[in-house]
Amino acid sequence: MIDEDGGQIGILPPFEALKIAKEKDLDLVEISPTAQPPVCRIMNYGKYLYQLNKKAHEAKKHQKVIQVKEIKFRPMTDEHDYLFKKNNIVRFLQEGDKAKASVMFRGREMAHKEIGRQLIGRLIEDLAGVAVVEGFPKMEGSNMFVIFSPKK
Predict the structure, then answer these.
(1) In this structure, are 51 and 79 located in the same domain?
(2) What's the pTM value of the predicted model, to 2 decimals?
(3) What pLDDT, on a 0 to 100 scale, did the predictor assign at position 62?
(4) What is the arithmetic mean of pLDDT over 116-135?
(5) What is the pLDDT of residues 93-108, one digit of tens each?
(6) How many structural domains is the chain composed of?
(7) CA–CA gap between residue 41 and residue 2 (Å, rounded)
(8) Which of 58, 81, 135, 142 has a CA positioned 20 to 30 A from the CA of residue 28?
(9) Rounded Cα distance, 133 and 127, in Å
(10) 78, 139: one domain
(11) Domain that holds residue 23
(12) pLDDT band at residue 149 under the 50/70/90 scheme
């Protein structure tokens, strides 16, 4: 058994440990039930839970949530539209988010997947200065996509 200051009291029967905890108006908490004999500690359990919650909340406050933003292209995307969408991807990456560029194929366009591959290849070359490619372009159903993450 361990007291509230961290000092060891020794091995006590459970009823005596509970009696000591009640006298100090604290709780008896089992820390390690698998140890021989089990280890218990005298503490204010409500205060302990409050401090754990406070630490978790503080850690969460300093986290940056990374989102994956998607930009959709078509195999016959025009030059101006391509540049506009590419600039949006650059903006997303500068904000610290990941970007997913996908080329959507419909109907007979599925026979010309090389056009989509060329489009994604061009995009990879254009974004080489600001982005890192996570894996090769993949085909999933009628969509081909690649994911970009910001360069550090």
Answers:
(1) no
(2) 0.59
(3) 80
(4) 92
(5) 999 899 999 999 999 9
(6) 2
(7) 5
(8) 58
(9) 9
(10) yes
(11) 14-60
(12) very high
Q: Which of 60, 87, 115 is the C-terminal boundary of a domain?
A: 60
**HSE-CB for 102 with a 13 A CA cutoff:** 14
Residues 35 and 103 in one domain: no
C-alpha dist (Å) from residue 108 to 75, 140, 145: 11, 17, 19
| Residue 5 counted as domain residue | no
Are 80 and 119 contained in the same domain?
yes
Mean pLDDT of the residues in the chain: 90
Quick one: 135 and 107 in the same domain? yes
Residue 25 zone, left/alpha/beta (φ > 0; ψ -120 to 50; rest):
left
Q: How far apart are CA 111 and CA 133, in angstroms?
A: 26
CA dihedral 90→94→96→102, nearest 10 degrees, is 0
The rounded distance, in Å, linking the Cα atoms of 40 and 30 is: 4
DSSP helix/strand/coil, 20: helix
Domain boundary, last residue among 60, 76, 91 = 60
